Amino acid sequence: MRRIVEPAAYGPAPLARCFWADTVPTPDWSGPPRGEASADIAVIGGGFTGLSAALHLAEAGEDVVLLEAEHAFWGASGRNGGFCCLGGAKASDTVLERRHGAEGRRAWRRTERAAVEFAGALIDRLGLEVDRHSEGETQLAHRPRDWDALRHEADRVAENYGVAPRLTQAADLEAEGLGGPFHGALTVPLGFALNPRKYAAGLAKAARVAGARLHARAPVRRIARDGAAWRLDHPGGSLRAGRVVIATNGYSSEDVPGWMRARYMPVSSNVIVTRPLSGAELQAAGWTSGQMAYDTRRLLHYFRLMPDNRFLFGMRGGLHATPRETARLARRIRADFEAMFPAWAGVEAPYLWSGLVCLTPTLAPFAGPVPEMPGTFAGFGYHGNGVAMGSYTGRILADLARGRAPDLLWPDTMRHAPGRFPLGRFRRMALVPAYAAMGWRDR
Fold this sequence. Notes:
Blueprint: E1 35-44, H1 48-59, E2 64-67, E3 83-84, H2 93-126, E4 137-140, H3 144-161, E5 166-169, H4 170-173, E6 184-188, E7 192-193, H5 196-210, E8 213-215, E9 222-226, E10 229-234, E11 237-246, E12 265-273, H6 279-285, E13 292-295, E14 301-305, E15 311-316, H7 323-340, E16 351-359, E17 366-369, E18 376-380, H8 386-401, H9 412-415, H10 431-441
Parallel strand pairs: 1-2, 1-11, 2-8, 4-13, 11-18
Antiparallel strand pairs: 3-7, 4-6, 5-6, 9-10, 10-11, 12-15, 12-16, 13-14, 14-15, 17-18
């Protein structure tokens, strides 16, 4: 596999201090299939998208094999912030309307809501215990002018999602348990927080019960045509399948398949989790709410108080997976955490990890057939909001792989295959000026 981030990003170090790993044992999926194996449908990638696809395929009676490059829940689905929320695209309403018209924009926004509802219904149907909490999601203004923007945003939220958002002035934030250096808040009553690894583990268990064969440590190194089917080469041999679902997202490679080359941009996200906070410590900071929240920065921070009173705090950023950059980011996330919550400056945060989220040139996700590869389908590009949209995309890909038109909303925004980023394998260099500009605009 040809990947574009430094090798350390795909090794054990970024995941070594992940809190979620202490909450769910890593299941012992089979190693790579030995010799020549076959299946009706192969799924590449064992995250939310791949597990959802495998589950729904197996439940429909398909013979499905899933190949995960590392151990179960190793990628973004086992190390994200646990926000099951609206999102999946970074394209603005203006951009969406220019590309797809007003109805296309509305169709995408309805799909965002449908994805959250789909994930919630799936959790309920499978009876999963995922530490679910938070009534929707709250965005907090980090500057006075952002409060003005949030007030205007409320009307757009109501139109796009068909819900009534709630505005909270700065003076009332602490009474709602949202204390901090904020200038107001907008709460959208859609979405919830969860333990992402418990969710992934539940999907995997259900998929296996339904008959899906899940294999870990089985990186697909090559996809090649083999008569009317596809041959997937991996360390244990090869798997022959009539149809293939590619669900690798930010951990994709340039050559599995070659069509993926430069159509995705992996970017880093970083998370810390504190020890459990006492009631007095929570009161000292003025943060007692269980709401999942994020600020109005472009290089945003996202954070929430978890059910056991640990505090999760994440941020975007990071351009290289080198020891020097890793140390710099550890200092940066700690400094940002303490600046936002100075009362917790002395609180230990024993957990620190990072992972890759995935952008596309269109700033929108893709879910559909891979051009010029009949019987092959891909889903990727959730822009840091893959819990809901990845689960939803997996179901769409399952339908497509079965030769069925999806019975879920599948808007033009998702159907259009993204083009390629400039600069090829050096495309992450474009993040340097982009991050500098966003940091300057966030001041």
